């Protein structure tokens, strides 16, 4: 079974939250996951300066050691969070992002 770390959408339209899940790569996005690893709420609450992510670092590292493949978005988020290093093996499979300066 090929496991993938990806986001699942939950909540009503215009009020979404994202669950970071370990899930079989061949089933649909919002299907029942093997394990929920974290929650990302992209909206700022009153008085907050930053968006926050609540996740279980130990479980994410466990799934990465077991061979789970993270999606592009998850790789970027884990790199920002310090879980993955910028030169990890997961970055090699990412396409190069174009910026306005390079176009």
UniProtKB/TrEMBL annotation:
<dbReference type="InterPro" id="IPR023803">
    <property type="entry name" value="Ribosomal_bS16_dom_sf"/>
</dbReference>
<comment type="similarity">
    <text>Belongs to the bacterial ribosomal protein bS16 family.</text>
</comment>
<dbReference type="GO" id="GO:0003735">
    <property type="term" value="F:structural constituent of ribosome"/>
</dbReference>
<dbReference type="InterPro" id="IPR000307">
    <property type="entry name" value="Ribosomal_bS16"/>
</dbReference>
<keyword id="KW-0689">Ribosomal protein</keyword>
<protein>
    <recommendedName>
        <fullName>Ribosomal protein S16</fullName>
    </recommendedName>
</protein>
<dbReference type="Pfam" id="PF00886">
    <property type="entry name" value="Ribosomal_S16"/>
</dbReference>
<dbReference type="GO" id="GO:0032543">
    <property type="term" value="P:mitochondrial translation"/>
</dbReference>
<keyword id="KW-0687">Ribonucleoprotein</keyword>
<dbReference type="GO" id="GO:0005763">
    <property type="term" value="C:mitochondrial small ribosomal subunit"/>
</dbReference>
């Amino acid at each position: 079974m090929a496991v993938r770390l990806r986001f699942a959408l939950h909540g009503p339209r215009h009020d979404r939250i994202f669950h970071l899940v370990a899930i079989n790569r061949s089933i649909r996005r919002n299907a029942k996951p093997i394990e929920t690893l974290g929650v990302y709420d992209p909206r700022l609450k009153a008085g907050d300066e930053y968006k926050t992510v609540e996740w279980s670092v130990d479980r994410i590292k466990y799934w990465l050691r077991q061979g789970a493949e993270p999606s592009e978005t998850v790789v970027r988020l884990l790199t920002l969070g310090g879980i993955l290093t910028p030169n990890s093996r997961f970055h090699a499979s990412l396409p190069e992002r174009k910026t306005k300066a390079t176009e």
